[in-house]
Amino acid sequence: MKNLILKFAGASLLAFALSTAAMATPINGNITFSGNITLNGPFATATGVNSWSSTIVNNVDGNFAPIVSAGDSVTFTAPWSFNSGAIDAFWSVNGFTFKLVSSAVEFHSATSISVTGTGWVSGNGFEEAAGAWNFSTQNIAAGGKFSFSASSSVPDGGTTALLLGMGLVGMSFIARRRRQVKA
Description:
183 residues, alpha+beta, 9-stranded antiparallel β-sheet
């Protein structure tokens, strides 16, 4: 029985290690964009964007950095309602795509608009990861320009695997110890 438990624990640990090694790395990083927009009405009452133009990457870090550079062109879906539901490819750049889940107006006045949202970023062989973003524009000061920042941050999978492996080893040690005490 002791050998069976040890074999089971060892096989479980090996299977978990192989499965986590085969999984793609989740995307982790930040990316910011800017460009020009046409709103769907007067600034103070606008509820969305009719069109995007001259949209480019401003800054990147993390997993985006080796693939995306400042100045790269970005494609946004239009039209877009500030309080929208899901959009499969809200933005895309160099093989990365952001799937919008939801967005909502955080602040809207006669001089500025701020919208936040959530969704999933995927692409370039990385595992899909949850992301959050912020869109903002100012009426006269921006002259039709916008800024957009997105970030994706996921827990370290290596730490999770290590803790799970240590737990399995600990369970097998406890089972072995109990058997020694009974004997």
